[in-house]
Each structure stands twice: as C-alpha cells, then as structure tokens.
Amino acid sequence: MSADAASNIIALYQTYAADFDRSRSRELVEKPWLDRFLVYLPPKASVLNIGCGAGEPIARYCIENGHEVTGIDASPALISLCRARFPGHRWLVRDMRDMRLDSRFDGLIAWHSLFHLMPGDQQIVLQTCMRLAAEEAVLMFTAGPDRLETLGRFCGQPLYHASLAFEEYRVILAGGGFQIIAHAIDDQSCGGATVYLARRSGG
C-alpha cells in the first residue's frame, strides 16, 4: 500500500493541483527558517526550489528577497501556475529523482517535498542536490521526526510520507561536504515541521 501511494504522488498533485494551490497557506509560518536559509546567500543568489508547487509562498519569498529562482515540480499544472505568477524566473517540469540541470546553485530548498519520496529515493535526490550545489551553498529540507513511513490524506486520497533518521541524513550530507547547522523536530512555530538546514564548507 505504501509503495502504491508513493508511486501515485505525481498523479495526485497533477489531478488536484488547483485544490493544492487553494489550500496552501500563504501565512508564511516558514519565515523564521527561510530567513535562516537566506542569511547565508550572497546577493542575487541562484536558488533551486525542489518540488516548488505553485510557487507560493516559498519561491515568492525568495524572489521578493532579490534572488533568482529555478523551480522544479513534476506537476505540469503547478509549473504553469508558477510561470504565470513569476515569468522572470525559470520553471521546469521535472521529477526530482531526475534533476538534469546545467547550473549550480547557491541555495537549494525542498520544503514539504522530499518527504513524499521513499527512503532510497531521498538518498538519491540529496546526493543529486549536493552535486548541483555551489561552494558554500546551503541546503534546507523538511522530513519526519525519525525513520518512518506513513500515509496521510489529501482530497480523499492516500498521501505518502517517509523519512530517514537524523544520523542517516547527517551521514549522507557529510558525504557531500555538508554539515547540519540547524535542526528542529516537530517545530510547532512552523506548523510542526521537522527541518534540516545544512551548509557546505568552502574549505
């Protein structure tokens, strides 16, 4: 059942793209974490928003802070909304498990997106992220509180989530030269998110 739900994520977000966009909060409870992320970026930084959805509020906040955003999402309907809202930025229909991009990025963010992948796929995506990261880049993503797989519901359909344990993420990131610089489990000030913020050393 979990494998079926995991394989249906792309179709789910494509079918219910308008519902997702309407339900996605614009209150920016993520702001404290986004500010932590942005403080490490140079002016006019290149930011890769992985699983960007319809571009609000995460991509919008990065854009409003003067950065150049490349957003990827596997739902063409959601990418169409991004292109309409932010035509001066780059929006690509991509499965995050197959991110063939020709750029390197100062910041990479996968907010409430990476955790829709099965654990093995998460490792692959994180390794790809690190290959796309510039020197001294920052990477931020959300996960679960520990190693687990669980099913939620969205528009009446099963919604898959998975997570690795903290130590597993730490080892994967260290393999690409990244160190976790901030971490919170079930941060209630941020909608109960479990957040990882990591930075690559330039040394």
CATH topology: Rossmann fold
Strand order of the largest sheet: 3-2-1-4-5-9-8
Number of helices: 8
The tally of domains stands at 1
Q: What is the CA-atom radius of gyration, in angstroms?
A: 16 Å
Look at the structure and name the CATH superfamily: Vaccinia Virus protein VP39
Q: Helicity level, as a percent range?
A: 25-40%
Class of secondary structure makeup: alpha/beta
Shape: globular
- Give the number of DSSP strands: 9
- The amount of beta strand, in percent, is 25-35%
Main beta sheet: strand number and arrangement?
7 strands, mixed
Which CATH C-level class is it? Alpha Beta
Following the backbone from N to C, one meets helices and strands in this order, namely HHHHEHEHEEHEEEHEE
What's the architecture in CATH terms?
3-Layer(aba) Sandwich
Distance between the termini: 45 Å
Low-confidence stretches: none
InterPro entries: Methyltransf_25 (IPR041698), SAM-dependent_MTases_sf (IPR029063)
Protein name: Class I SAM-dependent methyltransferase
GO molecular function: methyltransferase activity
Pfam families: Methyltransf_25
